[in-house]
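Help wanted!
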Amino acid sequence: MRFARGLTIRRDWTSDSTLISSSIFMPELTEDILARLRKAIQPERVLDTTLRLCAAPSPTGQAGPALDCLAEMLQADGFSVERVAGGHAAAPAVICRLTTSRPGRTIQFNGHLDTVHLPFAAPRRLPDRITGSGSCDMKGGVAAAIEALRALRETGVLAAGGVLLTAHDLHEAPWGFGQQLNALIAEGCVGDAVLIPEYLNHCLPVVGRGSATWRATIRRPGPPVHEVLRPANEPSVIDAGAELAARLRQMAAHLAHNIEARAGSESVFIGQMHAGEIFNQFPQECWLEGTRRWLPGTPPDSVEHEFRGLVEQVAKRTKTKIHVAFQLIRDAFLLPESSPIVAAFQQAYAQVAGAPLPLGPKPFVDDGNSFCALASVAAITHGPTGGGAHTVDEWVSIADLSRVALVYALTAAAFCPPPAE
Ligand SMILES: [Zn+2]
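Answered by r_m:
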C-alpha cells in the first residue's frame, strides 16, 4: 500500500519508483491463466450485478443506497467490506480487499456509483445491452470490476499482493467535485496503480487536460431603473460583460498555441451569458459562465490566478464589481508509458483482443486525474462499451461487461507478480 499525505502535486515522475521502474518483473500470462479466468467469469452474474446497481437511484450526493447495495452483494459473496465516510457520512464509500498470503503490489479497481441529476430511468435488459440511469456511467463498469475480483478469488491466480476495490459518491460535477475520493486518497486508501472502468476503450488514455468551471458575476451599485432614468455615471453591466467576453476570446487565441500532441490545446470557453429583464430596463447584473482547460505541467492555481487577473482588469476599466467563482474539477494528468501498470494492462489486453490498445488522450476528466495529481499513482481508464452518459438514454453493452472483467482480472495477475526468488 502507498500512503499519500495531503493534497500535493508531484510533477517529477522520474522520482517515483512505482511509476517508472527499470527492472519490472512481469509474469507470463499463460494460456492456463487465461483459460481459468475466462471460465470463472460468469456473464449472467455480471449482468445481474449491473441490474441491481442500476436499480438503486443514486444522484450525486445521494449514492448511499447504491453503495449499500454494492456492500451487501460483496458481503453475500463472502468478501469483507469496510465503509469509510470520507467526509460524506450520508453515503460512506465501499472498500473491499482481496489479499494473498505473499507480499507484493496492490492493484486498485476504483469507480463512482453516483449519477448526474437527471430523471431516473429504471434498468432494462435488452438482447445486447442494459439501459437505465448509470448503466454506462459507470455502474456497468463497476460491476465488471467486481466480477474480476470474484474471478481472481475463485481461481487463485493472483501470485502475490492483492486487489483493493473502492466505490464512492460525489464524482459528478457540479454536484460533487471528487471530494470523497480525495479524502480516501488523503487517508492512504490507494493502491500501487489503479484501473478505472469508465466508458472509454477505443484507446489507452495516457494524457488528459485539467478542467475547471468558472462564473463571473458583474454588478453595478444602483438599483434597476427605466433606461431613460439611467444615472449619467452609472456603468453598464452589459458593456462590461461584452468586454469580458472579448478579452476571453483573446485569451482563448493565446491558449490555442499551448498544444500537446495527444491532448490538444488549452482553452477558455463561454457557455452562458445573461443580463436584463426587459428591453428598456437598465440592468444591475450580468453573468457569464464557462470552462477553462489546461495541459499537464500547468499548476491549477496559476490558471486560476491568471483568470482572476484578467477579470480584475475588466472590472477596473468598466468601473463594475465582478465576483468570480472558480471551481477546479480535476487537474491534468500524464501517465508515463513505461509504468508497470501500462505494461500489465497491454499484456492483458493483447491476450484478449490479439493486439495492444493504441495510446491516446482522455477527453474528459475522471478519478484517474485525482490519483495522478494527489498521489502520483498511475491510473488507467478502461471500461465497457456504452453510450448516453449524462443523458436519460444510457446503455452498456452486455458482451463487453464480461470482456472488461476478463481484462481487469488478467491485468491484476500481470501487475501482481510473485516476489523474486
Ligand atoms: Zn463516470
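OP: Thanks! One thing I noticed: The two ends are 21 Å apart (CA to CA).
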